[in-house]
Amino acid sequence: MSKFRSPQAFALSDSYKLLPFRFRRLPWDHNRAFVSSMGGDWLLMGMNDLQRFVAHELPSDSSLFADVQARHLAVASTDTSSIAPLLSQIRTRKSYILGGPALHIFVVSLRCHHTCSYCQVSRKETTAADFDMAKRHAELAVERLFEWPSQELTVEFQGGEPLLNFEQVVRITELIVERNRSAGRSLRFVLASTLHDLAEDQLEFLAEHRFKLSTSLDGPEWLHNANRPRPGRDSYRRTIDGIDLGRRWLGEDGVSALTTLTKRSLEVPEAIIDEYRKVGFHSISLRPLSPYGFATRTARRTGYTTNDYLAFYRRAFEHLIAINRSGYALDESYASLLLSQLFTSFGHGYVDLRSPSGAGLGAIIYDHDGRVYPSDEARMLAAMGDDGFSLGDVTQTVSDWLTSPAMERLLSAGVAEALPTCSDCAFVPMCGADPIEHYARQGDAIGHRPTSDFCTRNMGLFDFLLEQYETSDQWTQNLMHSWAMPKIVREAPDVAA
User: Fold this and answer.
1) pLDDT at 298
2) Is-contact 342 458, C-beta < 8 A?
3) What is the pLDDT of residue 497?
């Protein structure tokens, strides 16, 4: 008897044509799968139904086939159906490619008063003025900024502590505003600061140019002071005073904050979230430690595993739902981003979740010494002695940067759809490549994705959010949908009865 089946056994019905798709068994229900299209549409499908779908055994007049076709997983007929909607969706989701970098970060000083154990950069003493950005470097950086085609520019000032070189913040802002009189770009200014030495005259300038302030708040006073020590042990009080002062000048939405999580932070998610509510924030960013700078030296004391972080996140999410159910609107920014990828087809500004890589194509960093990097993480690696991702310096042109070995390296490892394992992942239409993090953690820009912290974290969060969405009540589902939308009105859904 022959061991091989006849070719006729593999013949498929012509009732419909499959389009490219990927699937992933649900961790909480192995009898079903998350099935996604090339454009990021998806549905949850029973494994038996998935097998019938692949075998062309679904009735073309069934409700399931209607769902499959609506999500661009199949077409009823190549003669009467078009893939134009799918192509349009892909084009919309990848729209960030067309404009070039919209985020431009100016590092005006490395000086800082803090000694944070998790600091990602190479900070310097407050008296070390040699680590301030020079006037000539600032002028050339502004020239390079306007060589990019993006019509919407976010200019962010970082450090160290940028308030320690506020004169350069003023000079660069004025140069950009003057140059923009003829360029006609849309401008948005952000200052990332501890806010500790924020003065009224500085705020007058910031208010005139409609700045937004971004600061760090790691939780209640005891935790914030432990994570972000400074002489006087008054880091928390100074931060709260700066937030209050900034809001008086710039409005309630003029100041945002994020938290960086250390090992001790993972023990108290409720206390961290409650602090943000007490201070009056309506968004919190639960940011894990990064593998750069001082954080690598203190990892044994402050670090934790990705699974520890995911367990923390589950507790935090549960508390966030309770806070919202009480009537106070408070979202988690990374959950909002991932939910926007699940529930909308729009592009986004988050560099790490872009494919092709957002580093260099979505953001540019002008360092204090005139060196130019495709991301803040690349700058941090350079501070650690590895400048392999440096694009060049401000004396060169954008064309020089785009043809640099660093950019070639980024692009060769920066298309998630073409990377081993990523190419088969059902979440890849909503995810990114982040070659710099993989290089920092694994020594290779492509990396080994099955053991990647980046992949473990993002897949874990996608799985968790999908499980929460499917198993929650209608009120929680509505809340999660609201997090995925632009935050126009800051209100929680009506409290459930």
Assistant:
1) 52
2) no
3) 29
150: left (phi over 0), alpha (psi -120 to 50) or beta: beta
Residue 448: closest CA among 439, 436, 459 = 439
Report whether 116 contacts 228 (CB < 8 A): yes
Question: What tokens does 344 get?
Answer: 């909308």
Sites in the chain below the pLDDT cut of 70: 1-14, 113-129, 291-302, 486-497
Model pLDDT, residue 114: 57
CA distance 442 to 344: 32
User: What is the token pair recorded at 151?
Assistant: 């019509």
| Alpha carbon 341 to chain centroid, angstroms | 11
CA distance 132 to 297: 25
Other residues' Cβ atoms within 10 Å of the Cβ of residue 132: 24
> For the whole model, what pTM was predicted?
0.90
Between CA 95 and CA 349 the distance in angstroms is: 10
pLDDT in tens, 120-149: 556 555 655 677 999 999 999 999 999 999
Q: Is the peptide bond before 251 cis (omega within 30 degrees of 0)?
A: no
Query: Closest Cα to residue 323, out of 486, 489, 478, 476?
Result: 476
Look up residue 159 and give its two tokens.
């450090």
Query: What is the residue whose two structure tokens read 């997090």?
Result: 483
| pLDDT for the residue numbered 233 | 86
3-state secondary structure the chain: CCCCCCHHHHCCCCCCEECCEEEEEECCEEEEEEEEECCCCEEEEEHHHHHHHHCCCCCCCCHHHHHHHHCCCEECCCCCCCCHHHHHHHHHHCCHHHHCCCEEEEECECECCCCCCCCCCCCECCCCHHHECCHHHHHHHHHHHCCCCCCEEEEEEECCCHHHHHHHHHHHHHHHHHHHHHHCCEEEEEEECCCCCCCHHHHHHHHHCCCEEEEECCCCHHHHHHHCCCCCCCHHHHHHHHHHHHHHHHCHHHEEEEEECCCCHHHCHHHHHHHHHHHCCCEECEECCCCCCHHHHCHHHHCCCHHHHHHHHHHHHHHHHHHHHCCCCCEEHHHHHHHHHHHCCCCCCCHHHCCCCCECCCEEEECCCCEEECCHHHHHHHHCCCCCCCCEECCCCHHHHHCCHHHHHHHHCCCHHHCCCHHHCCCHHHCCCCHHHHHHHHCCCCCCHHHCHHHHHHHHHHHHHHHHHHHCCHHHHHHHHHHHCCCCCCCCCCCCC
Q: According to the model, what pLDDT value does residue 481 have?
A: 96
pLDDT reported for residue 111: 81
Which structure tokens are listed for 96? 């960030």
Strand partners, 187: 153
